Amino acid sequence: MFNIVLHEPRIPGNVGTIGRLAFALNSKLHLIKPYGFGEITEKEVRRAGLDYWYNLEVFEYENIEEFWKLNPLNDRHFFATTKTKNLYFDKGFKENDYFYFGREDAGLPENILEKSPNTNITIPMTNSARSLNMANSVSIICYEALRQNIGSFKF
């Protein structure tokens, strides 16, 4: 359905929770190293992902360059950030789109965001909160993409 890209995630529980969401949406999970924890097999990842983790399409990459070599950049790659005015719900999402999310403590780096400013997207907040939890952000954007494409999928 969609491609969820986590760039250098730091919290194993978030990765597990997002993996569970990816499974529920029949989506692929792409993990770009380095992680802020040990291996992806850590118990915190497995606990949050429950038994879904073993049925999930998950791919690991040593760095963003390796990821882009296998998944070339185009206008279907969307970068979640607080550093844009482009609202996520104003974009038209399609099946197989890529949704990128950055480190929990820093977000996506500027050199990635600069690759495609038109596909940078943000989730609006009505006060001065710095950001949302990564797993919540993934849920919000992926379910909007599902809503926009609901007729294409069987339940």
Mean pLDDT reading: 91
Q: Determine the N-to-C terminus distance.
A: 13 Å
Globular, elongated, flat, extended or rod-shaped: what is the shape? globular
Based on secondary structure, the structural category is: alpha/beta
Widest beta sheet: strand line-up? 3-2-1-5-4-6
Low-confidence stretches are: none
* Number of alpha- plus pi-helical segments: 5
Cα gyration radius (Å): 15 Å
| H/E topology pattern | EHEHEHEEHEH
What share of residues are in beta strands? 15-25%
> In total, how many beta strands?
6
Biggest sheet: strands, sense, closure?
A: 6 strands, parallel
Share of helix, binned: 25-40%
Outline the structure in words:
Strands 3-2-1-5-4-6 form a 6-stranded parallel beta sheet. It is α/β, with parallel strands linked by helices and 155 residues long. The chain has helices at 12-24, 43-49, 64-70, 110-113, 134-148, and strands spanning 3-7, 28-32, 57-61, 77-80, 98-101, 120-121. Strand 1, helix 1 and strand 2 (28-32) form a beta-alpha-beta unit. Helices cover 30% and strands 16% of the residues. Helix 1 runs parallel beside helix 5.
Task: Quickly describe the structure.
With 155 residues, this protein is an alpha/beta fold.
